[in-house]
Amino acid sequence: MFEKIVKLIEKYDRIIIHRHKNPDGDALGSQIGLYHIIKDSYPAKQVYIVGDMTPRYAFMAEKEMDVLSDEDFAGALSIILDSGAPSLVCDDRFSLAAATARIDHHIFVEKFTDEEVVDTSFESCCGEITALAMESGLTLSAAGAKALYTGMITDSGRFRYDSTSAQTFRLASFLMEREFDTTDIYRNLYSDDLANIQLRAKFTLKIQTTPHRTAYIYTTLDELRESGADTFSISRGMVGTMSEIKGIDTWVNFTETDDGVLCEIRSSKYNINPIAVKYGGGGHQKASGATLKDREEAMRLLDDLNALMEENQ
Questions:
Q1: Cα–Cα distance between 126 and 57 in angstroms, integer?
Q2: Alpha carbon 259 to chain centroid distance?
Q3: Which of 101, 214, 223, 306 has the lowest CB atom count within 10 Å?
Q4: pLDDT over 90 at 224, yes or no
Q5: CB within 8 A of 122, min separation 6: which ones?
């Protein structure tokens, strides 16, 4: 499945690994994991990782993200991970590279690189990178396996989401043969400062519901700034506060930023992806997102979710 991408990796001496902006555990895990696989398998190659960083997952990065010039992309291979659209990629200079490739597990929207493997049967992009290592026989160190396992945990909800399959556990077993410390992963992921626990409690009190039982939180730009938290911690971090409410099968978190309203949509039962796509976003059937122009557009999206729930009652 990954033969053409592996051939590109073998061909190019300079490789730049991208993923989506505002990275979650899967984006960083797949990026760091692939970095180790390529460096360990081909020590002479120049391998770089680029993009922004999310404080919550900073513990995963063993090195700083590389800062590259435009010239560094000339003659290079850019590999894009965990990104369903070019607008999501953390460094859009991938278009300057001599060749491009993409590995992704989101619902396919468009082709935007030379070679692509897009497979929604994987619970995570980390799962795909693990499969690449297994199928191609490339070297996978304990450090690379730990990063991939961490991303697999976060995107599968500790193996609780229904995207988890027998394939997931086969891949996880392959990773755990490298003997890394899982206790360290869980301690970093799920222990938290008292201030953050109190912040989640505050956002729990902000939860509202529509007439047809879609839960939502709306955070204004002023509220975001007053919270003192980074955007990721409020947008992606607070959507989970609505995930286990009885009688709620669909929920959405809206967060105003200087660049628009970030929208994180989730459902335990229904395919909400078409609604995200309607507003220029994408993702998975039950976990998608979009960036909206303003509050008015956010409320239109909320109306669409409410209508979806009405249709299914």
A1: 15
A2: 19
A3: 223
A4: yes
A5: 105, 128, 131, 167
pLDDT tens for residues 160-174? 888 999 999 999 999
Q: Which residue type sits at 171?
A: L
Given a contact cutoff of 8 angstroms between Cβ atoms, the answer to whether 48 and 66 are in contact is yes
Written as one letter, the residue type at 179 is: E
147-205 per-position pLDDT tens digit: 999 999 999 989 988 899 999 999 999 999 998 999 999 999 988 889 889 999 999 99
DSSP for residue 170 = H
Contact 20/130 with Cβ under 8 angstroms? no
Q: Do the Cβ atoms of 232 and 54 come closer than 8 Å?
A: yes
- Do the beta carbons of residue 31 and residue 128 sit within 8 Å? no
**Contact assessment for residue 252 and residue 301, using Cβ atoms and an 8 Å cutoff:** yes
Q: DSSP string of 176-244?
A: HTT---HHHHHHHHH---HHHHHHHHHHHTT-EE-TT-EEEEEE-HHHHHHHT--HHHHHHHHGGGGTT
Name the token pair of 291: 């960036």
Q: What pTM did the predictor assign?
A: 0.82
Helix (H) or strand (E) holding 49: strand 46-49
Quote the radius of gyration of the chain (alpha carbons, Å).
Answer: 19
